[in-house]
């Protein structure tokens, strides 16, 4: 490790990962796909640290998550056809964030969070012109509840609204805590009936996605 790397913790971490990839027989065999379970686990450990851990826990778990990014970049750097390394990842990220913050870097004005979102969404839309549906780019590997919130938001953008409790007999929760209680009660019902709550929500989401695509196609 050079003196310059020793002064730059991120560069030192990237160099440590490179050496591990090249010299550790286990790491040498790992692919992007092999790393997916570890990426999911480390992401959830960061969430746990944010919600109920200490500052030391959060610092450690963020480091573990960063290691996953460095690991993927080290694997990508060895690709024979389309290699890229952590510097390429960082350059791409910087370019994107500068582009999506014109109120910071390009003289545009945003004095409220809503105005910031206008700039962000406009830049994002320009980047994704090749996409044919508002559902494109939604990662299907998300947990069902997080996926549902994402798809419901995208559906609203396509003019497809999901009926809330006011359309039925249920009472709408008035706080996030009450929402948690209501969701837990539904899971308890699923368990009592022998239903799979995760599968039930995913199957309903497939129907919602079909409705969105029908709306987009004019069907």
Automatic annotation (TrEMBL):
Residues 31-105 form the NTP pyrophosphohydrolase MazG-like domain. GO terms for molecular function: ITP diphosphatase activity. The keyword Hydrolase applies. It comes from the Bacteria. Gene3D superfamilies: MazG-like. Its EC number is 3.6.1.66. The keyword Cytoplasm does not apply. Keywords: Hydrolase. InterPro entries: MazG-like_dom (IPR004518), NTP-PPase_MazG-like_N (IPR048015), NTP_PyrPHydrolase_MazG (IPR011551). It is an enzyme of class 3 (hydrolase). Signal peptide: none annotated. PANTHER family: NUCLEOSIDE TRIPHOSPHATE PYROPHOSPHOHYDROLASE. This is XTP/dITP diphosphohydrolase. It comes from Microbacterium phyllosphaerae.
């Amino acid at each position: 490790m050079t003196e310059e790397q020793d002064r730059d913790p991120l560069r030192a971490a990237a160099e440590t990962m490179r050496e591990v990839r090249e010299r550790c027989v286990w790491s040498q065999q790992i692919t992007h796909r092999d790393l997916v379970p570890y990426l999911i686990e480390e992401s959830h450990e960061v969430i746990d640290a944010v919600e109920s851990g200490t500052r030391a826990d959060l610092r450690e778990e963020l480091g573990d998550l960063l290691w996953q990014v460095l690991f993927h970049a080290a694997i990508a750097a060895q690709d024979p056809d389309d290699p890229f390394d952590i510097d390429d990842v960082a350059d791409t990220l910087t370019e994107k964030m500068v582009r999506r913050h014109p109120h910071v870097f390009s003289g545009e004005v945003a004095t409220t969070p809503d105005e910031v979102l206008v700039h962000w969404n406009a830049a994002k839309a320009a980047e994704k012109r090749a996409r044919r549906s508002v559902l494109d780019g939604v990662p299907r590997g998300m947990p069902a509840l997080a996926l549902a919130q994402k798809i419901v938001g995208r559906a609203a953008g396509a003019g497809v609204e999901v009926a809330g409790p006011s359309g039925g007999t249920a009472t709408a929760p008035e706080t996030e805590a009450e929402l948690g209680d209501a969701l837990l009660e539904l899971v308890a019902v699923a368990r009592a009936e022998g239903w799979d709550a995760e599968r039930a929500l995913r199957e309903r989401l497939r129907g919602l996605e079909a409705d969105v695509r029908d709306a987009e196609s004019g069907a």
